[in-house]
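Issue 218. Parser rejects a valid record. Input:
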Amino acid sequence: MIRTLIFLFLLVAVPLLAQHSDPAGAPLTLDAAVRMAVQHNADLQSARLEVQRSDARVMEAWGYTMPTVDLSGTFNHVVEKPKSYFPDAIYYPLVKLMDSTARVPRPTGQLIELPFSMSPTNSANAALNVRQILFNGSVFIGVGAAAVYSRLSRDLYHQKKVETVAKVRKAYYGALLAREALTLMQSNLRNAEENLKNVRLMRTQGIVSEYDELRASVGVDNLRPMVMQSETNFSLAVDNLRNTMGVGDSVAVSPVDQLMLQEADEGIITSADKTVLESNPGLNILRHQIELNNASLNAERANFLPTIVAYGSYSYTAIRDDYRFSTNDFYKTAQVGLNFSLNLFQGLQTSSRIEQAQLERQKTEEVKGGLERTLQMGVRSLVGNLRQARKRIEGQERTVETAERGYAIVTARFLANAATQLEVNDAQLALSQAKVNRMQSVYDYLVAASELDAILGRYPASAAEEE
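Output the parser choked on:
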């Protein structure tokens, strides 16, 4: 008897590794749990930030196609002027030309240090420079690649959201199963205590033996620690749910839904084998990854193409030996032009990078093909689990009804002294095990439905977000 009860407890218990806390708290429906997870889950928050970052990268990529305009200004003061030299063959004639009475030596081909510096003491400059890329293959390919990355980040967010919602649903169902197990154990304890009262009353009347009373008392004593353990399991399940939602220990919640069968859409189940290849987030991510591989390949090929850049500048410059600058001291210059560059040889680096990009694309395509096969096998397995759990539920509904009727009959017979305490215990154990099997089947069905939604990239309406 004791071994059977222990087996029943192990079957009911839901082992969840989480921190212990009091499960009592605010009423929480499954839809509310999903909404809270979408708002507070740390992984989803990180994925949202990555989406925003990818949008910024798109704007950055477009920025490379736009003109760049720079405004610069400089002022320079020479603290110590450099010395100036001039060939004596030119210097001496200039001196003679300026002063015909001056006596100058014959030129010897040497450099003469001038008594003054030809460098100005102060100089100022202001310039406006404009540069516009007219053609650069890598830049324009980068714009498309950034847009693909933006879509990729959104698929990554969708995948993370689908996974998070599925985890929350399974954690919620786990909490419901643990609560049903606790309710069942508490009901068994109440039944056992009521049976013990009846046995003791009948014992005082000499209807049953002392052995029957001992068996009834042992049954109650064995159930009490199992009820306590079920309470702990329920608390752990609620903690696991709260942690999965991402709300932490500061928020106390209590699941209020019932562990009831919610039929999955038969149309979705029937077409799941094809739908998974169209809507699975992981496959969409790989498709975008292949697009990025193609963009990388095209960017490497673009290195064989020329780069053409238009530029223009407009500047004001002035020089003086003092600080008394005026508008008349500045002179302006302007220029426009085109810059053309074409790489002719890079030591086969570009060809090697092109080959690497091609191999990277092939590798991603192989991963995509393998994932498609894995997903189709996974969908078939989940659909099989759904149908099997549904059949188990139908069979166990009848089993529970039969066990309840049997327990009612044997209890009435025991009160009429027509059955033994052992028969009562066996009937109660059979009823408890039938209820456990039914609960487990419903739980298995709901979990399989959650996993099927996840693999198909679906989630309930409660997880939708405002754009």
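Fixed in the parser; the record now loads. Residues 155 and 287 are 10 Å apart (CA to CA).
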